[in-house]
Amino acid sequence: MGTPHYYHSFSGPVDTKVIDCDVCVYGGTPAGIAAAMQIARLGKRVVVLEFGKRIGGIVTSGLGATDIGNKHVIGGISRQFFRDVGVKYGVEEKWHFEPHIALQVYQEWLDSAGIPVYLEHRLSGIEKKHGRIASLQTENGCQFRASIYIDAGYEGDLMARAGVQYRVGRESDSVYDEHYNGIHYGSPHHNFFRFVDPYRKPGDPSSGLLPNVSEMNPGRQGEGDDLIQAYNFRLCLTKEPGNRVSFPKPANYDPEKYELLRRYIGAGIFDIFKLAVEIPGKKVDHNNWGGFNTDFIGANYGWPDGDYRRRERIYQEHVNYVKGLFWFCANDPRLPPLVREIAGSWGFAADEFTDSEHFPPQLYIREARRMMSEYVMTEHDALGRFSPDDSVGMASYKMDSHNCKRIVKGGRALNEGNLEVAPLDPFPIPYRSIRPRRSECTNLLVTCCPSASHICFGSIRMEPVFMILGQSAGVAAVLSLDKNGIVQDISYSTLEQKLRSEGQILTEPEEEKAKLDVY
Length: 519
Prior knowledge:
alpha+beta; FAD/NAD(P)-binding domain; 5-stranded antiparallel beta sheet; 24 strands
């Protein structure tokens, strides 16, 4: 078993081979897998490059309780995934599942389609000629030459290398005349519901702030900044004695990191396990909940534009923070016995992530870069005020932002940035939001960093939608091959017809509009 890592510096022999294909997909995420499957289905040569050792992104790394939205607008390959997972459990379709089952399904897909997958192939550079990506190079010396490239990574690294305009952070409300963007206070969720003193010496600001509390200015409601919503790990936990691995103590464990939580528990709140959603195998998908939990608020600011080594440092900080959190809850003698008893009854599932100490290898990158193309989706799209006519799929989950900072306001600890606003109906994602401007790059499509404002992206960023966008990008890529490899030149009517024939749902079915099938 090995300690989970984001990045290992390349030290092996340089492999200078050149791989030619029709379409190169960078990112073995669910979006990347869906794109590759669609391209192979249409008879074109496709390869998938994956940064890490495991395909499937966050879906195979603990996100087993899927954030769905409205099921009836999830079609095509995305819907097929949940049906194929269902086959593993002997049901028609399954929306909550174990990580290793999701991995099996994706691996079987790729194997059956004969799609080459290059694990641990990390982008080191690109060659660009006449506004097009001519080749992609990886750290181990490989060169990938394709007519079309798809950036299916969570961070948009290929997009950024290609010189495509993007944004990191929150726009002010005034940029797109929005109401829910920018700095946001007032959420009834995921904050401290008791007064918690943030100072090292209670009541004494001169003593300094506790760890995980920022001196940052609170700012004003609706102001923009460059902050992003918090990351965490989606943990696969169990109480089953025969399958439970006790929470380990990190090598650099520091109980002071959790002093704010200790004070919160002392004030009468212990909700660490409140969002533990049951999945098969007597396990749960554990996610962040409340004022202090697995969201490592403020620790991810350097991730989107960071190089690989900086991301590795941030990654390890998140690993140690989360492991330390559960060790603290289960073992710190200053905590009430009931708290330690509850925490100690849980542990990692021994039959998951066996090659990374039962800890999920994929950090949950909720938000990084977002492309800025000719159509930027905003809350007006999500709330049905705009209706673009070049839909390549539907989004329907609430506009969901986790907290972006933890500060002091009025002498108490306060989280800022959480927001949850549900669309009235599913809404279309336009093709223009997954392709760059013609002037920036003509043979690139982007699936996980589409052109959207921070708050609208909060609805789009769910894995079923990423798979939808991956499949649509795959169809668009194949159609572009007949247009000199220029993704801006394909006819939307042709794209629409092909997407529908491949099972994509591009508009909300009239008969479903009145149904409340929302998760």
